[in-house]
Amino acid sequence: MKTLKIRAIVDGKSKGEIVYSNLPIAFLQGVDPEKGTVSDPKSPIYDQPFAGKILIFPNAVGSSVGAYVIYRLSKNHKAPKAIVNQTTDITTASGCAIAGIPLFDLPENDISELSQAKEISLDAGKSELIIEK
Amino acid sequence: MFLTKSEEKALAGESGEALEIAYRVLVAIGKISNAKRLIPIKWAHVSGVSYLTIGEYGLDFLKKISSTRGTKFRVFTTVNPCGMDIENWDSLDIPADYADKQLKIISYYEKLGIANSFTCVPFQSYKVPRRGTSVAWAESSAAIYANSILGLRTNRESAVSALASALTGKTVYSDLHIPRNRSPTKNIRVDLKRRNGDRLAGSVDYGVLGYFAGKNVPGVIGFQGQKFDLGMAEAKALCAAIGTTGSSGMFVLNSKERLETIDFTKKEYEEVFSELSQSGEGEAVVFGCPQMTIEELYELSRMLAGKHFLKKCFVFCSSKMYEISRTRGYAQVIEGAGATFVRDACADFTPLISALNVDSVETDSCKGAYYMHKVHGVNISLKDTKTLIEENAA
User: Fold this and answer.
1) Identity of the residue in A8, A64, A72 whose CB atom sits nearest the CB atom of B138
2) Domains of chain A (ranges, CATH numbers)
3) What is the DSSP code (8-state) at residue A54?
4) Pick from A9, A29, A98: CB nearest B375
5) Is pTM beyond 0.90 here?
6) Per the CB < 8 Å rule, is B32 touching A62?
7) CATH architecture of B277-392
8) pLDDT digit string (tens) for B157-175?
Protein backbone atom coordinates (compact mmCIF):
# COMPACT_ATOMS: atom_id res chain seq x y z
CA MET A 1 0.00 0.00 0.00
CA LYS A 2 1.36 3.36 -1.04
CA THR A 3 -0.01 6.86 -0.43
CA LEU A 4 0.32 9.82 -2.78
CA LYS A 5 -0.68 13.43 -2.21
CA ILE A 6 -3.49 14.67 -4.45
CA ARG A 7 -5.09 18.01 -5.13
CA ALA A 8 -8.90 17.98 -5.29
CA ILE A 9 -10.33 19.97 -8.20
CA VAL A 10 -13.91 18.74 -7.80
CA ASP A 11 -14.41 17.44 -4.26
CA GLY A 12 -15.44 13.89 -3.51
CA LYS A 13 -14.37 10.41 -2.42
CA SER A 14 -13.94 7.32 -4.53
CA LYS A 15 -12.54 3.82 -4.50
CA GLY A 16 -12.24 1.35 -7.33
CA GLU A 17 -10.53 -0.26 -10.27
CA ILE A 18 -8.49 1.99 -12.55
CA VAL A 19 -8.14 2.48 -16.30
CA TYR A 20 -4.73 4.01 -17.01
CA SER A 21 -3.57 5.90 -20.08
CA ASN A 22 -0.11 7.43 -20.33
CA LEU A 23 -1.32 9.54 -23.29
CA PRO A 24 -3.66 12.59 -23.22
CA ILE A 25 -7.31 12.19 -24.21
CA ALA A 26 -9.23 14.34 -26.69
CA PHE A 27 -12.82 14.16 -25.46
CA LEU A 28 -14.38 15.60 -28.60
CA GLN A 29 -13.95 13.01 -31.35
CA GLY A 30 -11.57 10.93 -29.21
CA VAL A 31 -14.14 9.50 -26.80
CA ASP A 32 -17.33 7.57 -27.55
CA PRO A 33 -19.90 8.95 -25.10
CA GLU A 34 -22.44 6.23 -25.90
CA LYS A 35 -20.01 3.39 -25.11
CA GLY A 36 -17.86 5.08 -22.48
CA THR A 37 -14.59 4.30 -24.22
CA VAL A 38 -11.65 6.07 -25.86
CA SER A 39 -12.23 5.76 -29.60
CA ASP A 40 -8.78 6.79 -30.80
CA PRO A 41 -7.00 3.59 -31.95
CA LYS A 42 -3.62 5.08 -30.99
CA SER A 43 -4.66 5.24 -27.33
CA PRO A 44 -3.33 2.53 -24.98
CA ILE A 45 -6.89 2.23 -23.56
CA TYR A 46 -8.63 2.13 -26.93
CA ASP A 47 -12.06 0.52 -26.62
CA GLN A 48 -11.66 -0.32 -22.91
CA PRO A 49 -14.84 0.62 -21.00
CA PHE A 50 -14.13 3.12 -18.21
CA ALA A 51 -17.71 3.52 -16.88
CA GLY A 52 -17.77 3.13 -13.10
CA LYS A 53 -13.97 2.94 -12.94
CA ILE A 54 -11.36 5.54 -12.02
CA LEU A 55 -9.93 6.99 -15.22
CA ILE A 56 -6.31 8.13 -15.11
CA PHE A 57 -4.67 10.18 -17.89
CA PRO A 58 -2.19 13.07 -17.98
CA ASN A 59 -4.55 15.77 -19.33
CA ALA A 60 -7.09 16.44 -22.07
CA VAL A 61 -6.25 17.94 -25.47
CA GLY A 62 -8.26 19.21 -28.43
CA SER A 63 -11.51 21.10 -28.71
CA SER A 64 -12.97 22.88 -25.71
CA VAL A 65 -16.41 21.41 -26.52
CA GLY A 66 -15.01 18.26 -24.89
CA ALA A 67 -16.50 19.45 -21.59
CA TYR A 68 -20.01 18.60 -22.80
CA VAL A 69 -18.80 15.12 -23.76
CA ILE A 70 -17.96 14.59 -20.08
CA TYR A 71 -21.48 15.78 -19.13
CA ARG A 72 -22.89 13.50 -21.81
CA LEU A 73 -20.96 10.50 -20.48
CA SER A 74 -22.44 11.11 -17.06
CA LYS A 75 -26.02 11.45 -18.36
CA ASN A 76 -25.46 8.19 -20.28
CA HIS A 77 -24.26 6.46 -17.08
CA LYS A 78 -20.99 5.80 -18.90
CA ALA A 79 -18.81 8.21 -16.94
CA PRO A 80 -15.82 7.21 -14.83
CA LYS A 81 -16.59 7.36 -11.09
CA ALA A 82 -13.57 9.65 -10.64
CA ILE A 83 -10.73 11.08 -12.72
CA VAL A 84 -7.05 11.52 -11.83
CA ASN A 85 -4.81 13.67 -14.03
CA GLN A 86 -1.16 14.60 -13.90
CA THR A 87 -2.19 18.24 -14.30
CA THR A 88 -5.87 18.93 -14.87
CA ASP A 89 -6.81 21.13 -17.84
CA ILE A 90 -9.74 23.50 -18.24
CA THR A 91 -11.87 21.12 -20.35
CA THR A 92 -11.71 18.28 -17.84
CA ALA A 93 -12.21 20.62 -14.86
CA SER A 94 -15.31 22.33 -16.24
CA GLY A 95 -16.76 19.08 -17.58
CA CYS A 96 -16.34 17.34 -14.22
CA ALA A 97 -17.71 20.38 -12.33
CA ILE A 98 -21.05 20.26 -14.16
CA ALA A 99 -21.20 16.47 -14.27
CA GLY A 100 -20.34 16.13 -10.57
CA ILE A 101 -17.42 13.75 -11.15
CA PRO A 102 -14.75 13.88 -8.41
CA LEU A 103 -11.53 15.11 -10.01
CA PHE A 104 -7.97 15.16 -8.74
CA ASP A 105 -4.47 15.82 -9.96
CA LEU A 106 -1.00 14.95 -8.77
CA PRO A 107 1.15 17.96 -7.83
CA GLU A 108 4.08 15.99 -6.37
CA ASN A 109 4.20 12.60 -8.10
CA ASP A 110 4.53 11.32 -11.61
CA ILE A 111 1.35 9.80 -12.96
CA SER A 112 3.39 6.77 -14.14
CA GLU A 113 3.57 5.65 -10.48
CA LEU A 114 -0.03 4.55 -11.02
CA SER A 115 0.63 2.61 -14.21
CA GLN A 116 0.87 -0.78 -12.49
CA ALA A 117 -1.89 -0.16 -9.92
CA LYS A 118 -5.14 -2.13 -10.07
CA GLU A 119 -7.27 -0.44 -7.45
CA ILE A 120 -6.98 2.93 -5.70
CA SER A 121 -8.93 5.04 -3.25
CA LEU A 122 -9.24 8.83 -3.28
CA ASP A 123 -10.28 11.24 -0.56
CA ALA A 124 -10.57 14.99 -1.18
CA GLY A 125 -10.83 15.77 2.55
CA LYS A 126 -7.48 14.08 3.29
CA SER A 127 -5.85 15.05 -0.05
CA GLU A 128 -4.83 11.40 -0.28
CA LEU A 129 -4.59 8.76 -2.97
CA ILE A 130 -3.99 5.22 -1.70
CA ILE A 131 -2.82 2.45 -4.02
CA GLU A 132 -4.78 -0.49 -2.64
CA LYS A 133 -3.59 -3.13 -5.13
CA MET B 1 -9.01 31.20 -4.04
CA PHE B 2 -10.53 34.28 -2.48
CA LEU B 3 -14.26 34.76 -3.08
CA THR B 4 -16.23 37.85 -2.12
CA LYS B 5 -19.25 37.43 0.13
CA SER B 6 -21.65 37.66 -2.80
CA GLU B 7 -19.58 35.12 -4.78
CA GLU B 8 -19.65 32.74 -1.77
CA LYS B 9 -23.42 33.09 -1.56
CA ALA B 10 -23.85 32.42 -5.27
CA LEU B 11 -21.63 29.32 -4.94
CA ALA B 12 -23.86 28.11 -2.11
CA GLY B 13 -26.87 28.36 -4.40
CA GLU B 14 -28.46 31.47 -2.92
CA SER B 15 -28.69 33.16 -6.33
CA GLY B 16 -30.22 30.19 -8.13
CA GLU B 17 -29.01 26.93 -9.61
CA ALA B 18 -27.54 28.40 -12.80
CA LEU B 19 -25.20 30.72 -10.91
CA GLU B 20 -24.34 27.97 -8.44
CA ILE B 21 -23.17 25.73 -11.30
CA ALA B 22 -21.37 28.66 -12.94
CA TYR B 23 -19.43 29.45 -9.77
CA ARG B 24 -18.67 25.74 -9.19
CA VAL B 25 -17.05 25.70 -12.63
CA LEU B 26 -15.04 28.86 -11.92
CA VAL B 27 -13.86 27.47 -8.57
CA ALA B 28 -12.68 24.19 -10.19
CA ILE B 29 -10.80 26.15 -12.83
CA GLY B 30 -9.43 28.50 -10.18
CA LYS B 31 -7.98 25.49 -8.34
CA ILE B 32 -6.16 24.06 -11.36
CA SER B 33 -4.71 27.41 -12.26
CA ASN B 34 -3.77 28.46 -8.70
CA ALA B 35 -5.82 31.62 -9.12
CA LYS B 36 -6.06 33.90 -6.13
CA ARG B 37 -9.29 35.60 -7.21
CA LEU B 38 -11.86 36.21 -9.93
CA ILE B 39 -11.71 39.25 -12.22
CA PRO B 40 -14.37 41.01 -14.31
CA ILE B 41 -14.34 40.48 -18.08
CA LYS B 42 -15.59 42.67 -20.94
CA TRP B 43 -16.59 39.95 -23.39
CA ALA B 44 -17.48 36.25 -23.26
CA HIS B 45 -17.33 34.11 -26.40
CA VAL B 46 -19.11 30.80 -25.92
CA SER B 47 -18.51 27.63 -27.95
CA GLY B 48 -20.71 24.53 -28.01
CA VAL B 49 -23.48 25.74 -30.31
CA SER B 50 -23.69 23.06 -33.03
CA TYR B 51 -26.00 20.19 -32.14
CA LEU B 52 -23.46 17.94 -33.85
CA THR B 53 -20.91 18.72 -31.12
CA ILE B 54 -22.93 19.18 -27.92
CA GLY B 55 -25.65 16.68 -28.76
CA GLU B 56 -28.63 15.84 -26.59
CA TYR B 57 -26.85 16.37 -23.26
CA GLY B 58 -25.36 19.72 -24.13
CA LEU B 59 -28.84 20.69 -25.28
CA ASP B 60 -30.33 19.45 -21.99
CA PHE B 61 -27.72 21.34 -20.02
CA LEU B 62 -28.42 24.62 -21.85
CA LYS B 63 -32.14 24.08 -21.45
CA LYS B 64 -31.67 23.67 -17.72
CA ILE B 65 -29.47 26.79 -17.42
CA SER B 66 -31.69 28.98 -19.59
CA SER B 67 -34.87 27.93 -17.84
CA THR B 68 -33.59 28.83 -14.36
CA ARG B 69 -35.78 31.81 -13.52
CA GLY B 70 -34.19 35.21 -14.05
CA THR B 71 -30.95 33.83 -15.52
CA LYS B 72 -29.29 36.15 -18.06
CA PHE B 73 -25.77 36.63 -19.35
CA ARG B 74 -24.22 39.47 -17.35
CA VAL B 75 -21.64 40.58 -19.91
CA PHE B 76 -21.42 41.12 -23.68
CA THR B 77 -21.60 37.61 -25.15
CA THR B 78 -21.06 36.22 -28.64
CA VAL B 79 -21.40 32.56 -29.63
CA ASN B 80 -19.72 30.16 -32.02
CA PRO B 81 -21.22 29.04 -35.35
CA CYS B 82 -24.02 26.51 -35.22
CA GLY B 83 -24.51 23.44 -37.41
CA MET B 84 -26.50 24.91 -40.28
CA ASP B 85 -27.52 28.02 -42.18
CA ILE B 86 -30.34 29.24 -39.94
CA GLU B 87 -32.27 30.86 -42.79
CA ASN B 88 -31.56 28.33 -45.48
CA TRP B 89 -31.13 24.89 -43.89
CA ASP B 90 -33.94 23.26 -45.78
CA SER B 91 -32.51 23.68 -49.26
CA LEU B 92 -29.07 22.51 -48.04
CA ASP B 93 -30.32 19.00 -47.18
CA ILE B 94 -30.12 19.42 -43.43
CA PRO B 95 -32.40 16.77 -41.83
CA ALA B 96 -35.50 18.32 -40.24
CA ASP B 97 -34.96 16.63 -36.86
CA TYR B 98 -31.41 18.01 -36.72
CA ALA B 99 -32.70 21.50 -37.60
CA ASP B 100 -35.31 21.23 -34.85
CA LYS B 101 -32.65 20.47 -32.21
CA GLN B 102 -30.34 23.16 -33.56
CA LEU B 103 -33.07 25.81 -33.40
CA LYS B 104 -33.78 24.80 -29.80
CA ILE B 105 -30.14 25.32 -28.80
CA ILE B 106 -30.18 28.73 -30.50
CA SER B 107 -33.37 29.68 -28.65
CA TYR B 108 -31.74 28.82 -25.28
CA TYR B 109 -28.75 31.05 -26.04
CA GLU B 110 -31.03 33.84 -27.27
CA LYS B 111 -33.05 33.58 -24.07
CA LEU B 112 -29.85 34.09 -22.09
CA GLY B 113 -29.01 37.14 -24.18
CA ILE B 114 -26.42 36.99 -26.98
CA ALA B 115 -25.21 39.49 -29.57
CA ASN B 116 -26.10 38.50 -33.14
CA SER B 117 -23.04 36.40 -33.92
CA PHE B 118 -22.78 32.64 -34.67
CA THR B 119 -19.19 33.15 -35.65
CA CYS B 120 -15.75 31.76 -34.84
CA VAL B 121 -14.16 35.09 -35.83
CA PRO B 122 -16.05 37.33 -33.34
CA PHE B 123 -13.29 39.94 -33.48
CA GLN B 124 -14.46 40.85 -36.95
CA SER B 125 -18.08 41.44 -36.03
CA TYR B 126 -17.74 43.71 -33.01
CA LYS B 127 -15.43 46.43 -31.79
CA VAL B 128 -12.41 44.90 -30.09
CA PRO B 129 -11.61 46.35 -26.64
CA ARG B 130 -8.24 48.00 -26.12
CA ARG B 131 -5.09 45.87 -25.76
CA GLY B 132 -4.63 44.40 -22.30
CA THR B 133 -8.36 43.93 -21.66
CA SER B 134 -9.38 40.62 -20.09
CA VAL B 135 -12.04 38.59 -21.91
CA ALA B 136 -13.16 34.94 -21.67
CA TRP B 137 -13.16 33.31 -25.07
CA ALA B 138 -13.77 29.69 -25.91
CA GLU B 139 -13.16 28.60 -29.52
CA SER B 140 -9.45 27.89 -29.45
CA SER B 141 -8.69 29.63 -32.76
CA ALA B 142 -10.32 32.88 -31.59
CA ALA B 143 -8.68 32.75 -28.15
CA ILE B 144 -5.22 32.27 -29.68
CA TYR B 145 -5.95 35.11 -32.11
CA ALA B 146 -7.13 37.35 -29.24
CA ASN B 147 -3.91 36.82 -27.26
CA SER B 148 -1.41 36.76 -30.11
CA ILE B 149 -2.76 39.31 -32.59
CA LEU B 150 -5.27 41.53 -30.76
CA GLY B 151 -3.37 41.85 -27.48
CA LEU B 152 -6.44 40.86 -25.47
CA ARG B 153 -5.97 38.56 -22.50
CA THR B 154 -7.84 35.30 -22.34
CA ASN B 155 -7.25 31.73 -21.36
CA ARG B 156 -8.39 29.01 -23.72
CA GLU B 157 -11.82 28.60 -22.22
CA SER B 158 -13.95 25.51 -22.62
CA ALA B 159 -17.57 25.68 -23.78
CA VAL B 160 -18.65 25.36 -20.16
CA SER B 161 -16.14 27.74 -18.59
CA ALA B 162 -16.97 30.48 -21.10
CA LEU B 163 -20.65 29.91 -20.34
CA ALA B 164 -19.83 30.28 -16.62
CA SER B 165 -18.03 33.54 -17.41
CA ALA B 166 -20.99 34.81 -19.47
CA LEU B 167 -23.34 34.01 -16.57
CA THR B 168 -21.16 35.64 -13.90
CA GLY B 169 -19.28 38.30 -15.90
CA LYS B 170 -16.08 36.94 -14.38
CA THR B 171 -13.15 34.68 -15.01
CA VAL B 172 -10.28 33.36 -12.90
CA TYR B 173 -7.21 35.59 -12.72
CA SER B 174 -4.59 33.14 -13.95
CA ASP B 175 -2.26 32.04 -16.76
CA LEU B 176 -2.56 34.30 -19.80
CA HIS B 177 -4.39 37.06 -17.88
CA ILE B 178 -1.14 37.68 -15.99
CA PRO B 179 1.45 39.61 -18.07
CA ARG B 180 4.48 37.60 -16.88
CA ASN B 181 2.95 34.39 -18.29
CA ARG B 182 2.73 35.77 -21.80
CA SER B 183 6.30 35.06 -22.94
CA PRO B 184 7.37 32.06 -25.06
CA THR B 185 8.15 28.79 -23.31
CA LYS B 186 9.70 27.08 -26.35
CA ASN B 187 10.73 28.29 -29.78
CA ILE B 188 9.87 26.81 -33.15
CA ARG B 189 12.57 27.69 -35.67
CA VAL B 190 11.35 27.70 -39.27
CA ASP B 191 14.02 26.56 -41.71
CA LEU B 192 12.32 25.43 -44.88
CA LYS B 193 14.67 26.01 -47.77
CA ARG B 194 11.75 25.31 -50.06
CA ARG B 195 8.38 26.49 -51.34
CA ASN B 196 7.67 30.03 -52.42
CA GLY B 197 11.21 31.30 -52.06
CA ASP B 198 12.14 29.35 -48.94
CA ARG B 199 9.52 30.98 -46.77
CA LEU B 200 6.12 30.07 -45.46
CA ALA B 201 3.39 31.88 -47.37
CA GLY B 202 -0.38 31.55 -47.46
CA SER B 203 -2.98 29.88 -45.26
CA VAL B 204 -1.96 26.27 -45.90
CA ASP B 205 1.70 26.88 -45.04
CA TYR B 206 0.83 28.68 -41.84
CA GLY B 207 -1.76 26.05 -40.99
CA VAL B 208 0.84 23.30 -41.36
CA LEU B 209 3.22 25.25 -39.11
CA GLY B 210 0.48 25.75 -36.50
CA TYR B 211 -0.48 22.08 -36.59
CA PHE B 212 3.16 21.15 -35.87
CA ALA B 213 3.68 23.87 -33.24
CA GLY B 214 0.49 23.02 -31.34
CA LYS B 215 1.55 19.37 -31.17
CA ASN B 216 5.01 20.21 -29.84
CA VAL B 217 4.57 23.20 -27.52
CA PRO B 218 1.89 23.15 -24.81
CA GLY B 219 2.65 26.68 -23.54
CA VAL B 220 3.26 30.02 -25.28
CA ILE B 221 4.97 29.37 -28.62
CA GLY B 222 7.84 31.50 -29.92
CA PHE B 223 8.27 31.51 -33.70
CA GLN B 224 11.57 32.42 -35.30
CA GLY B 225 13.72 31.72 -38.36
CA GLN B 226 12.00 33.74 -41.07
CA LYS B 227 10.12 36.97 -41.62
CA PHE B 228 6.47 36.24 -40.88
CA ASP B 229 3.98 38.03 -43.13
CA LEU B 230 0.74 37.41 -41.36
CA GLY B 231 -2.35 38.85 -43.01
CA MET B 232 -5.61 38.13 -41.24
CA ALA B 233 -6.09 34.95 -43.32
CA GLU B 234 -2.66 33.52 -42.48
CA ALA B 235 -2.97 34.49 -38.80
CA LYS B 236 -6.38 32.84 -38.61
CA ALA B 237 -5.07 29.65 -40.24
CA LEU B 238 -2.09 29.55 -37.87
CA CYS B 239 -4.27 30.08 -34.77
CA ALA B 240 -6.85 27.51 -35.86
CA ALA B 241 -4.22 24.84 -36.49
CA ILE B 242 -2.44 25.46 -33.18
CA GLY B 243 -5.80 25.03 -31.46
CA THR B 244 -6.47 21.77 -33.30
CA THR B 245 -3.46 19.86 -32.03
CA GLY B 246 -2.57 21.17 -28.61
CA SER B 247 -3.27 23.25 -25.56
CA SER B 248 -1.23 26.37 -26.36
CA GLY B 249 -3.19 29.61 -26.05
CA MET B 250 -0.75 32.08 -27.55
CA PHE B 251 2.24 32.60 -29.82
CA VAL B 252 4.82 35.34 -30.21
CA LEU B 253 6.37 36.12 -33.60
CA ASN B 254 10.10 36.74 -34.02
CA SER B 255 10.88 35.33 -30.59
CA LYS B 256 14.26 36.54 -29.36
CA GLU B 257 14.16 34.52 -26.15
CA ARG B 258 16.90 31.91 -25.69
CA LEU B 259 14.89 28.79 -25.07
CA GLU B 260 14.66 25.17 -26.02
CA THR B 261 14.18 25.30 -29.79
CA ILE B 262 12.47 22.84 -32.10
CA ASP B 263 13.27 22.90 -35.81
CA PHE B 264 10.51 23.01 -38.39
CA THR B 265 12.14 21.93 -41.64
CA LYS B 266 10.98 20.55 -44.95
CA LYS B 267 10.78 17.11 -43.35
CA GLU B 268 8.33 18.22 -40.62
CA TYR B 269 6.33 20.19 -43.18
CA GLU B 270 5.93 17.15 -45.43
CA GLU B 271 4.98 14.91 -42.49
CA VAL B 272 2.17 17.20 -41.38
CA PHE B 273 0.99 17.81 -44.93
CA SER B 274 0.74 14.11 -45.76
CA GLU B 275 -1.06 13.44 -42.47
CA LEU B 276 -3.72 16.02 -43.34
CA SER B 277 -4.02 15.55 -47.08
CA GLN B 278 -4.92 12.01 -48.15
CA SER B 279 -6.11 12.72 -51.65
CA GLY B 280 -4.92 14.60 -54.73
CA GLU B 281 -8.39 15.68 -55.73
CA GLY B 282 -11.72 16.31 -54.04
CA GLU B 283 -15.34 16.14 -55.22
CA ALA B 284 -16.37 19.38 -53.49
CA VAL B 285 -14.59 22.53 -52.34
CA VAL B 286 -14.97 24.04 -48.85
CA PHE B 287 -13.82 27.56 -47.91
CA GLY B 288 -14.16 29.13 -44.49
CA CYS B 289 -12.68 27.22 -41.56
CA PRO B 290 -12.48 29.43 -39.56
CA GLN B 291 -15.29 31.41 -41.20
CA MET B 292 -14.22 33.81 -43.93
CA THR B 293 -13.50 37.40 -43.08
CA ILE B 294 -14.62 40.27 -45.26
CA GLU B 295 -11.05 40.59 -46.62
CA GLU B 296 -11.07 36.94 -47.65
CA LEU B 297 -14.49 37.28 -49.27
CA TYR B 298 -13.15 40.21 -51.26
CA GLU B 299 -10.09 38.17 -52.34
CA LEU B 300 -12.30 35.24 -53.30
CA SER B 301 -14.58 37.44 -55.40
CA ARG B 302 -11.56 39.02 -57.08
CA MET B 303 -10.09 35.63 -58.01
CA LEU B 304 -13.47 34.31 -59.18
CA ALA B 305 -14.40 37.19 -61.48
CA GLY B 306 -15.65 35.76 -64.77
CA LYS B 307 -15.18 32.16 -63.61
CA HIS B 308 -17.52 29.34 -62.73
CA PHE B 309 -16.94 26.40 -60.38
CA LEU B 310 -16.70 23.00 -62.02
CA LYS B 311 -17.80 21.23 -58.83
CA LYS B 312 -19.82 22.02 -55.73
CA CYS B 313 -18.31 24.77 -53.64
CA PHE B 314 -19.37 25.96 -50.17
CA VAL B 315 -18.34 29.21 -48.53
CA PHE B 316 -18.76 29.48 -44.74
CA CYS B 317 -19.12 32.90 -43.13
CA SER B 318 -21.30 34.69 -40.59
CA SER B 319 -24.56 36.23 -41.76
CA LYS B 320 -23.15 39.60 -40.73
CA MET B 321 -20.18 39.23 -43.12
CA TYR B 322 -22.51 37.87 -45.79
CA GLU B 323 -24.66 41.01 -45.57
CA ILE B 324 -21.61 43.26 -45.80
CA SER B 325 -20.27 41.30 -48.77
CA ARG B 326 -23.65 41.68 -50.52
CA THR B 327 -23.59 45.43 -49.97
CA ARG B 328 -20.13 45.56 -51.49
CA GLY B 329 -20.97 43.22 -54.35
CA TYR B 330 -18.58 40.37 -53.41
CA ALA B 331 -21.33 37.87 -52.60
CA GLN B 332 -22.96 38.33 -56.00
CA VAL B 333 -19.69 37.44 -57.77
CA ILE B 334 -19.10 34.40 -55.55
CA GLU B 335 -22.67 33.16 -55.95
CA GLY B 336 -22.53 33.97 -59.66
CA ALA B 337 -19.55 31.60 -59.88
CA GLY B 338 -21.79 28.83 -58.59
CA ALA B 339 -20.64 28.73 -54.96
CA THR B 340 -23.16 28.32 -52.14
CA PHE B 341 -22.92 30.45 -49.02
CA VAL B 342 -23.51 28.69 -45.72
CA ARG B 343 -24.11 31.37 -43.11
CA ASP B 344 -23.64 31.14 -39.33
CA ALA B 345 -22.46 27.54 -39.55
CA CYS B 346 -19.25 25.65 -38.81
CA ALA B 347 -17.77 23.80 -41.79
CA ASP B 348 -16.51 20.98 -39.57
CA PHE B 349 -19.57 20.39 -37.40
CA THR B 350 -22.46 20.56 -39.85
CA PRO B 351 -24.36 17.57 -41.23
CA LEU B 352 -23.99 19.26 -44.62
CA ILE B 353 -20.62 17.62 -45.38
CA SER B 354 -21.93 14.11 -44.69
CA ALA B 355 -25.13 14.88 -46.64
CA LEU B 356 -23.05 15.71 -49.73
CA ASN B 357 -22.33 11.99 -50.15
CA VAL B 358 -18.81 12.58 -51.39
CA ASP B 359 -15.64 10.66 -50.58
CA SER B 360 -13.29 13.61 -50.76
CA VAL B 361 -13.23 17.35 -50.15
CA GLU B 362 -10.75 20.05 -51.15
CA THR B 363 -9.99 22.81 -48.66
CA ASP B 364 -7.35 25.39 -47.75
CA SER B 365 -7.79 24.87 -44.00
CA CYS B 366 -5.64 22.55 -41.89
CA LYS B 367 -8.17 22.67 -39.04
CA GLY B 368 -10.95 21.92 -41.52
CA ALA B 369 -8.88 19.09 -43.00
CA TYR B 370 -8.41 17.51 -39.59
CA TYR B 371 -12.03 17.73 -38.46
CA MET B 372 -13.81 17.02 -41.76
CA HIS B 373 -11.73 13.85 -42.14
CA LYS B 374 -12.41 12.82 -38.57
CA VAL B 375 -16.09 13.81 -38.28
CA HIS B 376 -17.37 13.01 -41.77
CA GLY B 377 -14.90 10.37 -42.89
CA VAL B 378 -14.05 12.20 -46.12
CA ASN B 379 -10.55 12.24 -47.55
CA ILE B 380 -9.00 15.66 -47.84
CA SER B 381 -7.07 17.39 -50.56
CA LEU B 382 -5.27 20.32 -48.97
CA LYS B 383 -4.46 23.15 -51.37
CA ASP B 384 -3.95 26.88 -51.02
CA THR B 385 -6.78 29.23 -51.90
CA LYS B 386 -5.39 30.28 -55.24
CA THR B 387 -4.77 26.70 -56.38
CA LEU B 388 -8.27 25.68 -55.33
CA ILE B 389 -9.71 28.31 -57.63
CA GLU B 390 -7.29 27.74 -60.51
CA GLU B 391 -8.02 24.02 -60.54
CA ASN B 392 -11.74 24.08 -59.80
CA ALA B 393 -13.12 27.14 -61.55
CA ALA B 394 -12.92 28.12 -65.21
Assistant:
1) A64
2) 2-131 (3.50.30.10)
3) E
4) A29
5) no
6) no
7) 2-Layer Sandwich (3.30)
8) 988 999 999 999 999 999 9
